[in-house]
């Protein structure tokens, strides 16, 4: 096994910590939404590591029929609409998926097996969400946001 890809792990951590901060400070979501976010985090790590072969097989079988293609078109149109309506939130999800894909590829290149990759991806993602939640709850970080919003940068945080 080669060295761990610390830069991509740090990027994944930063992506999830900013997403956690965004969820608390901007969206003010409740417990149910946090459960969905944690499920998304675990499902994404599982799909990229241990369930990847099954996912490829399912998609290839699914797209062999007309119903599969029609469903793909409907899901794509719905996803495009959601992306336009919730552009900022969609941007965060796009960054999360990109960072997790990069980290998975770097871990694969380093010779890390799928179970260890699942462990690293899940641990770093959940730690990033926890740090983002902590930073949003901590009063130390609030004056910076309030000062920026007073100087005409409130569009960044809304």
Record field, number of beta strands = 0
Secondary-structure class: mainly alpha
* Shape label: flat
Q: State the helicity in percent bands.
A: over 70%
Question: Averaging pLDDT over every residue, what do you get?
Answer: 83
- The sequence of SSEs as H and E is HHHHHHH
Largest sheet: none
Rg (C-alpha, Å): 18 Å
Percentage of β-strand residues: under 5%
Q: How many H/I helices? A: 7
- In total, the number of domains comes to 1
Give the low-pLDDT segments: 145-158
Distance between the termini: 44 Å
Write the layout of secondary structure elements.
Layout: H1 6-27, H2 31-48, H3 52-62, H4 66-85, H5 87-109, H6 114-137, H7 142-150
Helix pairs in contact: 1-5, 1-6, 2-6, 4-5
How would you characterize this protein structure?
Helices cover 80% and strands 0% of the residues. It contains seven helices and no strands. The chain has helices at residues 6-27, 31-48, 52-62, 66-85, 87-109, 114-137, 142-150. α1 (6-27) packs antiparallel against α5 and α1 (6-27) packs parallel to α6 (114-137).
What would you say about this model in short?
With 158 residues, this protein is mostly helical. It has 7 helices and no strands. Helix 1 (6-27) packs parallel to helix 6 (114-137) and helix 4 (66-85) crosses helix 5.
């Amino acid at each position: 096994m080669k060295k761990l890809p610390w830069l991509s792990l740090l990027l994944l951590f930063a992506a999830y910590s900013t997403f956690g901060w965004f969820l608390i400070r901007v969206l003010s979501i409740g417990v149910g939404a946090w459960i969905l976010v944690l499920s998304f985090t675990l499902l994404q790590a599982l799909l990229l590591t241990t369930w990847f072969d099954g996912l490829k097989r399912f998609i290839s079988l699914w797209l062999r029929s007309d119903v599969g293609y029609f469903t793909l078109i409907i899901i794509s149109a719905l996803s495009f609409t959601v992306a336009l309506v919730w552009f900022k939130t969609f941007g965060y999800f796009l960054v999360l998926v990109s960072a997790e894909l990069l980290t998975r590829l770097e871990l694969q290149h380093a010779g890390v097996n799928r179970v260890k990759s699942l462990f690293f991806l899940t641990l770093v993602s959940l730690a990033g969400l926890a740090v983002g939640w902590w930073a949003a709850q901590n009063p130390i970080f609030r004056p910076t946001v309030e000062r920026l919003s007073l100087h005409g940068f409130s569009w960044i945080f809304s």
